[in-house]
Each structure stands twice: as structure tokens, then as C-alpha cells.
Amino acid sequence: MKQQSPFGAVKRNLVGDNNPSIYPGSDPTIYGTATLTPLDPVEVRSFQSYRLIYTVGKLGIDDTGGIRIAWRSISDAGRPQMTDPMGDNYVTASSNGAGRLSLRYDHNGGIRPWNEVLTVEQVGGYLREGDKITILFGDTSQGSAGMLTQTFVEGGRDFRVMVDVQATGIFIELPDTQLAIPIVAGPAVSWHAVIPTLRRPMEAFHLGLKAEDKWGNPTAQANAVLRFETSMPVMGLPEMLDYAPEDRAMTLENLTVAQEGTVWIKAFIGENEVAQAGPLVIKNGDVAGFWGDLHGQTGETVGTNTIESYFDFARNKAFLDVTSHQGNDFQLTGVFWQHLNDQTATWDEPGRFTVFPGYEWSGNTAVGGDHNVFFRNEGCTIRRCSHVLLDDQSDMDTDANTLTDLYQAFVASGDDVVLYAHVGGRYADIFYDHDPTLETAVEVHSAWGTFEWILTDGFALGRRVGVVCNSDGHKGRPGASYPGDSIFGSLGGLTCFLADKNDRDRIFEAQRRRHHYGTTGCRMFMDVRINFPETSTVYERNPDAMPDTVTHQVNNVMMGDIVQTSADEVELAVSIKAHAGIERIEIRNGADVLETLRPYGESDLGRRIRVLWSGAEYRGRDRITTWNGRAQFNGMVIERFETINQWNPDQLFEQRGSDTVIWNTVTTGNFMGFDVWLADDSGDIAVTTNHGALSFDLGDIGLREIVLDAGGLERKLKISRLPENRLKNEITFTRNIKLNTKGDNPIWICVFTEDGFQAWSSPVYVFQ
After folding, report:
1. pLDDT tens for residues 268-285?
2. Domain 288-521 in CATH: superfamily?
3. Interatomic CA distance for residues 67 and 670, integer angstroms
4. pTM for the complete prediction?
5. What does the domain layout of the chain look like in residue ranges?
6. Prior bond to 238 cis, omega within 30?
7. Total Cβ atoms within 10 A of residue 72
């Protein structure tokens, strides 16, 4: 049997949903029963066939009544169709009773989280007790390949069976029935080795090892003898390792390095390098770097998989240091809130793995919009925006309907709590309200896309918040959240917290002082400091909200600090070490880019041409932009072609012939594109997309990007030229920055790597 998750399907009593409050009776025999076969584990993205048999209960089923099968909305499995017997996902239904059956599929026809529904209606007759309805999902009898399985691992994909016995339009879930199919990973296509990015000499760290399938799932279908090579001696690391994980990944704990330097760890199978971990900077100092993804959901709310598997994935599959669970509050039951608190207390391991209890306050954008809530301790009261999906309304008096209500409730309660503003289905409206004592950061990247505007809009308002990036993943993969084939268009992000120790107290303090930076999913070492020519004052908290906060006299500060100085000019000192070449670094003061720094010049450019497209339709839920395009290199031959940020393997994106690239992709505020290495350096390039076109002689393309503004929200098409060889992955520099005399100078950087990742420092807020 194929290996499956030890955590199984989500327990139905923990799921927040809105069942009908009116029932035809209390006797469970009136509803009938259902079976589903087979229930064996199946691989992701495989074709399968299932037989669901419903046996009619005591009341029978009246004419125009029927049954309904529902699935969670977070799914990229094949959608049932009833018109093409030779096509994928063909579904048929039959009964041994009177009348006929009519099938209707609606991808968004149910109530959250069971939005995807197939309705089987009884027409022209009625069914008696004991009659049977048989549904074949993936009926292959006339040539269909079967039902296409989803792209992500799940302990059990639920087939929720409901019945309308008296043709009222009210479908009741079958009592005590849970039909779920385990989904397991496919064959390995890539190996991954993961280490942190900053530790002190002799400070312990761990090395995570895994093999992933095509869709980013850690897989058990990988066994090998791994050999390691390191750039520096690593104590506790064996030279060879028999990689045979019990559950899809392995972690080597308590590794140390004695001396300062930069650590890279390469993993080999035979003579073939299969993975590289690093950079890990070993450096004496006040802080180390701890990586987290603090934003994701599970099947108890709108996501998939169990809360237990979520925390297991974060620690043991994504190799995170910090995490939290963020269920939509209006769907988070009291029973699950208690269970979640029990789980966070169980998984929290001071010094190794920090877990915060929390939730997502999910108010509409009109009343403040989505905000992440993190408690330092268990046992706090959840203050929901509403109870819209909750039958138990006994605690409705604790609701906070607006963001202002939420701030006031937390201040009154005295809870030790931190909030982030973020952009999901409902984006946070930072103009609505803000409490500097509670809201410490904004989320500029997640699996929903990239949203710098949620930070830059706040500069004019005098906001002093840090940068975080998380996944907002719904597939149970915090820290390694791939979008699959669904509405999410980007890899989930990560945040690096700079703290003395990995525990709740230190990470909370790092949040409150904005001592962190975010990336679009890579683990990059970033050190950003401001040096002052004279002694200046740093504030531990925002003095606008807490005038009596503790202060220190300093000559230099780190990212996130709030500093008052009498100097007219300061020195920005930056050190970046990345997993890949650094394409450029933007130095920013507020929303203004002061300088773009590239580790190469005009004379270094070669025959590598980069084409990128980016942006979104608007800020709201339906922000996805579809990009259909074609790039033709007339008179030239493509010697090499590499995609950038192609997170969905099923999307059309490939080279055609010797001179053409075509694509059919999406962006959601992020960017994607490709590099080509050309055989010669003469000819012209013509890029045509559904949002506009660019055409240039190759000789006109130089160091600066050629940009087409395609409307929408930062929707752009760009062409540039790069050096042919890989770029430097380490840059250290200083720059003098003249300060504006009025208001804050939010000094921060944005880093772009040549393989498509971004990283942002939290701003240093300097004022005079």
C-alpha cells in the first residue's frame, strides 16, 4: 500500500460550517446511507475512478428531491462533467428505482467551505426505501481517463454526502458518515536541503532534507545514500547518510559551527549534486535569524488537512522555526478554538520551534479588512468579526464587528497580542484605522501575490510598521506553500525574525520592534543597518503611541528601529548573501527608489534576454491577471531557455521551435517570465500579449528595462538584458543618504534574485 498521512481526514465535529437548522426528523434511518469505493490512497495528479452508492432511507426520496455530493472549495482536482464520455472527469449516475436522474455540477454552488457540489436530482418518479443511486466518478467505460486527482497531499479528501428527501431544497448531511480518500505524493523530481541563515558560533541549528514531487509535495518515493560536502567544518553532520525517512522528510538536529564564516552544505548522490543548503552566516552578534510562516489555514476552516498535520509539516517538512494557524474567525468554532490552543501548547518547544495561538480576524474591507491575530499565550478570548458560519452563537457578545471594535476590545482585555494587516480575499484597508500598540507589520507577499502598496500607502499616513511575508496557504503546507493549479498564483512567503533566542518572548519582541524581513519564499541572509555620525535616540516602541517608551542612545541601529537624530545624513550599511545570483537591489526612502544597485555594468551584458510580466487587475478578490503571450526572436536561435516563477507546471509556458516562446499564465501582483540565451546578437524581438506588445531591435536592449505599462494594478511587460554567466550571490555596500527634514525617512531595501525571488527589509524609521 502507498504511504499515507498518519493524521487522516479532518474530524467533522471540528469544521466550522453552516448546516440547516431544520431537519425532517431525528431518526437517522430516514436519511439513508452511502458508501464510496475504493478508499485506498491515490497519488496526486493521477486519474482515478470511484463508485458512490447511496441507499435510500425510510422516507424515500420524492420527485425532484435527490442527493448532493460536496467537496471543499480549496481543491484543484478535475471538475465533474457529464457531456463528453471520452473526456476527463466524466461522471454518470443511475438508479434501480422509478424515474430518471438529472446531474448538475456547480463549482461554487454550495456554502463555504463546501462550495463545490454535484447535485443528483430525482425526476419523473420517486424512490422507495432500499432503492439505490450509483454514481461513477471517472466513468471509463466509453474512453474517459477517469477523474483527475488534486495536486497536493491530503490525509483524506472528503466526499460530503447530503440528501433532500422531501424535495424542499434543503440538503441534510448524512449522519455519522465520512467518506474520504487519502491523497499521497508522487515520484520525486527534486531534492531539497534547508538550513537557517544566521547563527552565532557554537549555536545549534538543523539541516532539513526532503525530496519533492512535481507539485512540491515531500514524497516517500525517494531513498538514497547522501554524501555531504561543506564549505566549513560542521560538527554533528555525518559524511554519509542513508536517506530513508519514515514520513517524507528527515531533519538532522544540533549541528554547530565553531568559527565565523559562511556555511554551504551540498548533498550528493554518487557524484551528482542533488541539493545545496545555504548560505548560513556564522557571526558573533546580538541576534540569530529564525524563519517562519505564520499564516495558513486547515480543513477545520476553509483549507485542507488537519491542524496536527499542519504543525507537523511546518516543523518537520518545511523546517520552520516559527509558525501559527490563522483560521477565518467566522468559521472557527469554539470546540476547534480550544483544540487549536491545546495543539499550540503541545507543539511549542522553546528554543527550537515557536508556535503561537491565533486566528484571522476576517472583517470585510469596508470595516478594516483581514488582520492576523497572534497571542503570546493560550486561553485568550477569540473576538470574531461575526458568527456567519457558526451555529453556536452563545459567545456572540465577544464579537468585534469592526477593526476599531477589535482594537478597543484587545486594549480593554489586556491580552498580550500582535496584529498584522494582510491582503487575502478581503484586503486590509489601512486607511480605516490603526493602533500602533497592536498592529506591528503588514504582509507584502503571500500565495495571493505581492502587495507592496499595503506598506507604501502607509508612509504618507505616518505608519511605522514592519515587513512580513507568509503563505496564507490553504493546502496544509506552511513554509513550502506551492499554488498548485488553483486561484493562488505564487509561492508562499517567509519571514526571518532577528532575535536572541527562538521562543515566544523573543519573537514577540522582534515583532514589536519590527526586527524582521520577508521574502517570496527563499531563505536569504540580509543585514541592514543605519550608522549615525553622532549619538541618536532609538525608541523601543512607537513614541507616537507610547511617549514614555524606553529609549537608548546609539550610533547604529538595525532594520525596523525608530530613531530620532539631529544629523542631516546617515550611512546605510547592507550585506546580502543569497541562494542565487542577485539581479538588483533597490534602496528606498519611503515610496521613492533612491538608487538601483546592480552587481554588473553595461560592459558585462551578454546574449541573455529577460522577459517579465507582472501585476494584478485591482486590489480585491478577483485580482488575477491572465497573460497570454508570444515572444519571437527574429533572425536568432535560442540556445537555452529558463522560466522564472513558473509555479504551476500545467500552465502552457514553453519554447516552440528555435526562435519562439509561448505562454498562458497568471499573475496576482507578483511577476513571472523567462530568460533566453541567444546564439547571436543581431535581430529583433517581438513580444505580443493580450495586454499589449513590445518590439525592439536587440541592439536597443541594454542595462535598463524596456517597460510597457499595461494598466490595472502594476500590470507591466518588461524586457531587459543580463550577463550570460550567473550573477554574484553576495553583495556588501554602504551608501550615504540625505534625510528629509519633515516627517519620517523610512529607509529600506528590496532585493531581486536572478531566479525570480524578492526580499524586503523592514524600514528603519528615521526622523529629526
Report:
1. 999 999 999 999 999 999
2. Metal-dependent hydrolases (3.20.20.140)
3. 41
4. 0.96
5. 12-184, 190-282, 288-521, 526-599+740-768, 603-722
6. no
7. 23
